[in-house]
Amino acid sequence: RKEVEQDPGPFNVPEGATVAFNCTYSNSASQSFFWYRQDCRKEPKLLMSVYSSGNEDGRFTAQLNRASQYISLLIRDSKLSDSATYLCVVNFPSGTYKYIFGTGTRLKVLA
Amino acid sequence: NAGVTQTPKFRVLKTGQSMTLLCAQDMNHEYMYWYRQDPGMGLRLIHYSVGEGTTAKGEVPDGYNVSRLKKQNFLLGLESAAPSQTSVYFCASSLQSDTQYFGPGTRLTVL
Questions:
Q1: Is the peptide bond before A10 cis (omega within 30 degrees of 0)?
Q2: d(CA A98, CA B32)
Q3: CB distance A98–B58 less than 8 Å?
Q4: Mapping DSSP to helix (H, G, I), strand (E, B) and coil, where does residue B72 land?
Q5: N or C end of chain B, less CB within 10 A?
C-alpha cells in the first residue's frame, strides 16, 4: 500500500457542481495533513490545513477521519478557476520533518 | 518579499556534467527542502535541512548533494548528471514543520 494514495482523476464537473476528493494514508501516527493546489507547470501552493475537527474556508471544506485514515476535500459551487491538481500531503510521525505527497487528483471544471 | 526563488528556471545538461541549483528564501525560515516531481510519481523529497549547517537525506538522495551554509540558501548539486535525473525540481521552506512555501521550480533535462 502506498503511503499516501489519491485517485488521479480527472474529475470533470460542470460549473456550480459540488465535488469531493479523498486521500488515504497508511501511517496511523501521522499528525499533520494538508491540501495543496498545483496549477499546470506551476509550484504547489497551500490550499488548507486539515484539522481534527475539520475546517472550512469559503467553498472549501476539509475533513480528517483518523479511524479510517483518510482526509477529504469538498469543493462547493465549482468555478472554472478551480481547475487544477489537488495534492494531499501527510507528515511522517513527529520529529522527522518529512512530508509525503500524494500524486494528486486532477479537477477540470467545465463551462 | 520575494518568498522562495530558484535559479536557474531551465537547464539542459549532457550526461556526466555537473551543476548546482540555488534556492533562496527571505522569510527567515529554518526548514528547507528539495523535491523532484516526475509524471505519475508526485513530489519526492531529495534532501532537507532543519537549520543552517545541517542537512539530511530524504526519500531519493542518491546522485545529489546539498549544502546549507547560510540560513537563507539551500544548494542542490548534481555531480555527474544522468538522464534519470531529468525532472522538475522544487525547493520549499517552512518556519517549522507546517506550511511549506515552494519556489517556482527548475526544469532540468539531461541528454
A1: yes
A2: 11
A3: yes
A4: coil
A5: N
Query: Between B31, B50, B97, which is nearest A32 by CB?
Result: B97
To the nearest whole angstrom, how far is the Cα of A67 from the nearest Cα of chain B? 23
Q: How confident is the model at residue A92 (pLDDT cuts 50, 70, 90)?
A: confident
**Which of A32, A91, A97 minimises the CB distance to B50?**
A97
List, for residues A10-51, the tens digit of each pLDDT value. 999 999 999 999 999 988 888 889 999 999 989 999 999 998
Strands (E), chain B: 4-7, 10-13, 19-25, 31-38, 42-49, 56-57, 65-67, 73-78, 87-94, 101-102, 106-110
Determine the residue of chain A that is closest to B95 in CA distance: A97
For residue A111, give the nearest of A75, A82, A80, A81 by alpha carbon. A80
Q: Cα separation of B9 and A100, whole Å?
A: 24
- Please judge whether B31 and A49 are an interchain contact, meaning their C-beta atoms are less than 8 angstroms apart: no
